[in-house]
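tl;dr need the bound structure. longer version: we got a ligand (iron/sulfur cluster) that a collaborator sent over and nobodys looked at where it sits. i said id run it. heres the input, straight from their email, havent touched it
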Amino acid sequence: MAQTAAIRFDRFNVLQDEEAHARIVSARARLGTRAVILCHHYQRPDVYRYADLTGDSLKLSRLAAEQAARYIVFCGVHFMAEVADIMSAPEQISILPDLAAGCSMADMANLAKVERCWRELGQVLGNAEEAITPITYINSAADLKAFCGEHGGIVCTSSNAEAILKWGFAQRGKALFFPDQHLGRWSGSKLGVGLEEMRVWDPDQELGGLSEDEIRSARILLWKGHCSVHQMFQPEHILRWRTRYPDGHVICHPECSYEVCRLSDHVGSTEAIIRTLRAAPANTRWLVGTELNLVNRVAEELRPEGKIIQFMAPLVCNCSTMARIDPQHLAWCLENLAEDQVVNRISVPAHEAKFAKLALARMLEVS
Ligand code: 13P
Ligand code: SF4
C-alpha cells in the first residue's frame, strides 16, 4: 500500500476550538491503545481534558517507562518528552505536539558551559571526578543528564532533590547542582547545609565568578539558573496575605526563591501540592505559589468542599512555553498518528540516551 504524506500543520492552525475537539476525539478513537496521552499539571485546560495520565516530572517519568502504547504523546515540555523517549522501549515513539514547547530554565544550562565548569572545578579541586557529584534537575536537556550519568552523577526532580543531594554527598564531598539554583538551595538547607556553604556558579564568568577559596569551601555549587514563572512569587505576597488571613495556609513549589519557601508552610512538587490541597480539611484557605493553570484547576475542584485556593502573585504567571501545546497541535499530531504518520518525534541519540538513562535509573533507585 502506498504511504501517504504527513498532513501539514497549517491546515489545523485555522481550526476553531470545537472543530479541533471533534477531530481529537475522532483521531483518539481511531488510535485506540496505540497512543497514550501524558499531561503535566501545568497544561492548559483545553489540552489537559484529553490526558490519559497526569503527574509531576517524577511520576510522569515512571509512567512513561510503564506504557505499552506505540505512541507516547507528551503534553508537557521538551525535556519531559526526551525523558519519555529515554525511559520507554526502543520501538515506542515519543511525541511533543509543538516542538516550541521548551523550558526556559532548562535552556539556562548547556553542555559546553557545564563541561567548562567541570574543567575549571578540576583545576581548583584536583580531580573533579573524586571531589564533586554532578546533579542535574530533570528540567535539563538529555545531554546534561548523560553528562551526569557518565561522571558518577544523577538526576533529581522537585520531589526527591533532598534525597538525591544526600546521595550525592555520600559519593563525594561536594555537589554541583544545575540548572535551578533555588531548588538546590532549598534542598541543601533542608539537609542542614548553611547558606554560606552554598555558592552561586555564574556560567558566564571565569571560575563561575568565585575565588578558589570560595570553591574549595563550598559544599554545593548552585548553577545560576531559575524559573521565570516561579521567580514572580515574592515574600511580600505571602506577608501581605497573612495579615489579611492569619489562619490561612501557604504552599509553594521549590523553584520559588529561598525566602518564599521559608515563609511557606509547605513546599513541594506539583503532585505534592495537589495532594496536600486535596487532603486539607474542608473550609480552609490556601495561598499557592506555582503555575496558574494548576492553581485554577485545583481551586475549582475543591471549591465544593469550601476550600478557598488563591494564587500567590497579583500577575498572571503561566508557563508560556508549555502553553504552546494547544488543541490544534494535538489534533494535528493525533490525526497523523492515526494514519501512522509520525510527526514531532523526540528522539535522543543512543550514545546520550545510554548515560542519561543511567543517571535516571540512579535517581529512581534512590527515590
Ligand atoms: P514538577 O516535577 O513538580 O511537576 O515540576 C516541574 C516543573 O517544571 C515545575 O516548574
Ligand atoms: Fe520550565 Fe518554569 Fe515552565 Fe517549569 S514552569 S517548565 S521550570 S519554564
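gonna send this back to them w/ a short note. The pocket of 1,3-dihydroxyacetonephosphate (ligand 1) is lined by residues 41, 56-57, 139, 157-158, 227, 253, 255, 269-270 (CB under 6 Å).
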